[in-house]
Amino acid sequence: MTQTMGIQVVARLLGRIIAAYALFMAIPLVYSLVRREADFMAFVWSVAITLVLGAMLYYAGEEPGRIGTREGFLVAAGTWVLASALGALPYWLSGWVPTYLNAVFETVSGLTTTGASIIADVEALPASLLLWRSMTHWLGGMGIIVLFVVFLTNVGADAVNLFQAESPGPTVERVLPRIRTMALRLWQMYVVFSAAQVVLLYLAGMDLFDAVNHTFATMATGGFSTKNASIKYYDSLAIELIIVLFMFLAGGNFALYYLAWQKGWRKLLANSEFKVYLAIVIFSTLAVTALLYCGPGIAPATGLRDALFTVVSIMTTTGFVTADFDQWPPATKIILLLLMFIGGCAGSTAGGIKVVRLLILMKDAAWSLLHAVHPRLVAALKIDGKPVDAEVLHMVLQFFFLYILIFFVSVLLVAATGLAPFDAMGAVAAMLGNVGPGFGVVGPTTTYAAVHPFAKAVLTADMLLGRLELFTLLVLFHPEFWRPYAARRGSSRL
Q1: Residues of 231-255 as b/e, b for ≥16 C-beta within 10 angstroms?
Q2: Secondary structure of the chain: what % helix, strand, coil (to 5)?
Q3: Which of 262, 295, 345, 464 could be cross-linked to 329 through a Cys-Cys bond (beta carbons 3.0 to 4.6 Å apart)?
Q4: Selection from 176, 181, 147, 141 nearest residue 162 by Cα
Q5: Which residue has the higher pLDDT, 29 or 152?
């Protein structure tokens, strides 16, 4: 296979994905026509432009003979960049978001399930634009490409290269032998959970439109709301508990849920990552509750309610709000900042470093201490009784180093635009972890509208890096990636 043929394969696949993306964009177009909204032409033009571009890419390419690792990376990165650029069109063409940069920021925030917004008054938006805003969450949550893999009929085993490029991690949980079947099962579970939440929210008092939109945001761990005050608007314990439950589920491993459904729910509590995930949520909730009681003197019942919702929302990187945590004691903010870094489980719709990576790092640190005491000891690092491959450990260490490096470089760049240091740290942690609200000027009751355009560009890149877990985008900047296959035969590493 030549490099040129690889590019043509990428073009054909991108064309098919972008054309399918246009069909999803047509859903709010139809909704706009049904409601006779004045801004429906913005969707008409957006769908038309997206379809034309998809057709151009499709006919410029050729059918895949083989999808290699490099093609997988290019398709994943290209899909997310094009989806972000095209998904911004309805905001911009309708005039509700006056600058294209802000429209791209809003779209990237939606697709990466970050939930950071530059729109101060979302309740003023047309219903069709609110629907599109929530749909970007839902599509990006489980993954645009993971959905597309379900419909691929001529790729075969090479579909795994697309799946892994969009859903990288310390391991790929292959609970089913065929990657297309696995992608289908994951999306089926995603749809079932979503339908269940819509019904429960409707029964709890939300109207159907709000229930659908908040479900899209919850299951994607996104955080976009149809209300300016987010979930605080409803002031309903029932609604909060329903959303907490589904945020927690969305922050867990969907492949593990399928395995538990097939082989029994005891599989959940036998999984080390899930147990640590649950323990962190419980401990953090109790710690924040205690700090709220000892500090501002908030009653335990109220403190527990606010702490539980906020801890689950931040750790799962959803970003829904029921309380202004920016006014809480400093120690609680540190806990929330740490939760932004941790994130949810591998195989979830959540962002962050992921619990399993931290679990591997902690076990490796403990093993290193043990080895220092007993230098001759030979023991394998294990998770759930299975040895952790040396290559997996190496990738986890690389990921952690790059994550922290990008965090500090981004903080420096954002702070250079005038943002206060802690505010810059909170903003970058929230963007890189796909959380949404930060602290200070980008806190839970404000938006990112006032942030400097350069800082918005940096934060937009951070959102994409965080959603694609660094490597899928960073590898494109390595010169070796673009060398022809023939020139790379003598080397097996980038």
Answers
A1: bbbbebeebbebbbbbbbbbbbbbb
A2: 70, 0, 30
A3: 295
A4: 147
A5: 29
Contact 215, 201 (CB under 8 A): yes
In the chain, the percentage of residues whose pLDDT exceeds 90 is 59
Neighbour count for residue 419 (Cβ, 10 Å): 23
Task: State the Rg of the chain over Cα.
Answer: 22
Mention every residue, 6+ apart, whose C-beta is less than 8 A from residue 414.
Answer: 424, 427, 428, 451, 455, 458, 459
- Chain-centroid distance of CA 140 in Å reads 7
Residue 383 forms beta bridges with which residues? 386
The pLDDT assigned to 255 comes to 84
For residue 99, report the phi and psi dihedrals to the nearest 5 degrees: -115, 145
Residue found under tokens 């003023």: 124
Count of CA atoms in the C-beta half-sphere (13 A) of 32:
23
Question: Among residues 487, 492, 482, which one has the least CA distance to residue 6?
Answer: 482
* Closest of 80, 46, 14 to residue 460, by C-alpha: 80
Cβ contacts of residue 206 below 8 Å, gap of 6+? 214, 234, 239
State the pLDDT at residue 490: 47
∠ CA 91-466-260, nearest 5°, is 105
**Side chain identity, residue 112:** T
Residue 481 has a pLDDT of 79
Helix (H) or strand (E) holding 101: helix 100-111
Mean pLDDT is lowest, of 150-154, 178-182, 230-234, 323-327, for 150-154
Nearest to 231 by CA among 220, 239, 222: 239
Average pLDDT over residues 221-235: 94
pLDDT tens-place string over residues 414-458: 999 999 999 999 999 999 999 989 999 999 989 999 999 999 999
Residue 142 has pLDDT above 90, yes or no: no
Retrieve residue 15's tokens: 């064309």
Element holding 387 (H helix, E strand)? strand 386-387
